[in-house]
């Protein structure tokens, strides 16, 4: 029994060498990105509670946009990974075109939405709290948003290129580009927020300018590298000699990808709706959540990137028609991801409470953030399994199932539960947060049976 379980869930050195080689650059890139976001959050936090709330609110809205872009790119990636595994570089090129067109289209729509309804959207999250001014937070949020919009186009184009590069197994270049970008962001943050040397003191506007410059630099590095290494990026051959996509391929990607694109938007919007329900308890809660989420992102990167690698490795196996190998690799990767996440959760639970003391906030907010961090750590291993299940189903093109599993679940279960508990019960906000996060158990049960059913084991190219 033990030997059978070991064979099923534990791989050999060669397996982990490949998995870790692919995942490590992605983990490093996201670790640096999230660490700089953490530093950015701390620096903005020195400007006061209103500044933290303003930036956190805009970033929450930008999170919905980012997931819409990810969804557009991911729709093509379902086929991209399988085309590459099959050795069909022309098909891979068409998925690149699809990504480029859809990510830019989503970005244009996002900019228009933020321009028209930015003020109303930010105001949804700002409520009265002792010692805090929602009016000041709204003013700061609008200034921050107006600058961030300038960086949305390079972000979208970078996603189209970077996801295709990763599908070929080359994860180092996006990592290097991300490292250069976040280093630039960190330096400019300090200079422009506080006015170091010849730089003006711009506060939250400085933080936004630093982010925009970093995004242009990251996109430039990825795009230039891709076009100067044609031998490694064969999908770029002829990519700009025409603009069309064969109707059959376009329809395939659209039919499979539409639920995924819609899922990313609705899921992100659902998470924002949950946050908005929490914020009804005051700006102190919103500020504490911002701190908790920033700290949580530092620890979540391991299971998030290990999960993302599932879609690449399993997708390549499926594209090559090696179904049993895909199933075997998936079992081992899920087990490894949950194991690593459990270790990270223990570390986060033990030491996460130290981070809120770095912020220039009241003791009440620090205490609240510490409790949120502890709750997030408790549920982290469950989130890891759900995340892996999602990418497993997605790799086999089961986008309608992932749509039901992810965004529908968020809107049908999590968002209503958060709304009812926050608005109509006397439960403390920490308990509200605990019960809403605890719905991951339901997703775990659903994910287990869907993955076990092998409905995702199919070659779609």
Provide an overview of this structure.
The protein is an all-alpha fold. 81% of the residues lie in helices and 0% in strands. It is built from 15 helices and no strands. It has helices spanning 2-9, 13-45, 49-86, 89-123, 134-148, 152-167, 172-194, 204-228, 247-279, 283-319, 323-351, 363-395, 399-424, 429-437, 440-452.
Brief account:
This protein has 461 residues and is mainly α. It has 15 helices and no strands.
Query: Number of DSSP strands?
Result: 0
The outline comes out as globular
| Uncertain regions spanning at least 5 consecutive residues | none
The Rg value, from CA coordinates, equals 22 Å
**Which structural category do the helix and sheet elements fall into?**
mainly alpha
In round numbers, the mean pLDDT is: 87
What is the share of helical residues?
Answer: over 70%
SS summary, helix count: 15
User: Main sheet?
Assistant: none
Taken in chain order, the helices and strands follow as HHHHHHHHHHHHHHH
Report strand %: under 5%
**Could you tell me how far the N terminus lies from the C terminus, measured between alpha carbons in angstroms?**
37 Å
């Amino acid at each position: 029994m033990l030997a059978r379980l070991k064979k099923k869930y534990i791989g050999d050195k060669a397996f982990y060498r490949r998995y870790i080689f692919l995942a490590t650059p992605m983990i490093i890139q996201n670790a640096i990105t999230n660490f700089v976001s953490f530093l950015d959050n701390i620096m903005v936090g020195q400007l006061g509670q209103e500044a933290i709330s303003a930036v956190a609110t805009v970033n929450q809205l930008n999170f919905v946009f980012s997931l819409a872009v990810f969804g557009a790119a991911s729709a093509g990636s379902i086929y991209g990974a399988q085309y590459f595994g099959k050795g069909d570089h022309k098909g891979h090129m068409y998925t690149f075109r699809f990504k480029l067109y859809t990510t830019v289209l989503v970005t244009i729509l996002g900019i228009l939405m933020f321009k028209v309804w930015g003020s109303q959207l930010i105001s949804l999250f700002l409520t009265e709290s002792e010692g805090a001014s929602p009016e000041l937070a709204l003013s700061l949020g609008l200034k921050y948003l107006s600058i961030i919009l300038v960086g949305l186009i390079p972000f979208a184009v970078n996603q189209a290129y970077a996801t295709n590069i990763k599908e070929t197994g080359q994860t180092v270049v996006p990592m290097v580009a991300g490292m250069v970008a976040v280093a630039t962001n960190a330096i400019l943050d300090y200079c422009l927020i506080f006015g170091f040397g010849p730089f003006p003191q711009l506060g939250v506007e400085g933080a936004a300018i630093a982010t925009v410059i970093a995004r242009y630099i990251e996109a430039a590095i990825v795009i230039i590298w891709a076009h100067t290494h044609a031998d490694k990026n064969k999908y770029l051959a002829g990519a700009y000699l025409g603009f069309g996509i064969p109707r059959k391929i376009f329809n395939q990607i659209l039919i499979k990808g539409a639920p995924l694109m819609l899922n990313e938007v609705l899921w992100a919007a659902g998470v924002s709706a949950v946050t908005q329900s929490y914020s009804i308890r005051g700006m102190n809660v919103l500020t504490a959540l911002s701190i908790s989420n920033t700290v949580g992102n530092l620890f979540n990167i391991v299971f998030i990137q290990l999960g993302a690698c599932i879609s690449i490795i399993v997708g390549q196996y499926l594209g090559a028609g090696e179904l049993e190998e895909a199933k075997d690799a998936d079992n081992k990767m899920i087990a490894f991801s949950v194991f690593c996440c459990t270790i990270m959760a223990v570390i986060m639970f033990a030491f996460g409470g130290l981070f809120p003391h770095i912020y220039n906030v009241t003791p009440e907010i620090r205490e609240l953030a510490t409790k949120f961090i502890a709750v997030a750590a408790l549920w982290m291993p469950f989130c890891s399994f759900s995340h892996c299940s999602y990418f497993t189903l997605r790799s086999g093109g089961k986008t309608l199932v992932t749509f039901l599993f992810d965004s529908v679940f968020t809107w049908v279960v999590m968002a209503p539960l958060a709304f009812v508990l926050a608005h109509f019960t006397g439960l403390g906000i920490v308990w509200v947060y605990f019960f809403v996060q605890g719905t991951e158990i339901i997703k775990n049960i659903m994910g287990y049976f869907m993955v076990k059913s092998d409905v995702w084991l199919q070659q779609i190219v």
